[in-house]
Amino acid sequence: MGDVPLLISTWHARNGGGDELERRAAEIVAVSARVPGHLGGTVLRDPGSPDVHIVHRFDTPEALERWKMWIASFLGAYPLVVLFQWLLAPHVEDLPLLLRSAVLPLILLSLMTWCAMPLVTRLLHGWLTR
Fold it and tell me: How many helices and strands (H and E) does the chain possess?
């Protein structure tokens, strides 16, 4: 059957949050099922351990590479979306729907293009190119 490309990540829960981290890992596996080329994922955790391991399987090395960029994009976008919701969303809620809906992508894509993604790809360079 040949080699199946794998992506293995380990997450460490702090302050006894292992059960919550394990639930979140299961959510990641469920969402990743929609990624083209993703064959499945498994969450591994020893009872009582704060470490959660996620093993993803892909049909081709190219599918794995797309997955890595998805992770990098998520890591860049998520903090920006949280900041937007916290700082700016309350100030634009009275704008008309079409204008209000344009504010998030305008700000998010600008910050992603020129700030977040250069930083994220620099920080993850070794992992992304492995």
Answer: 6, 3
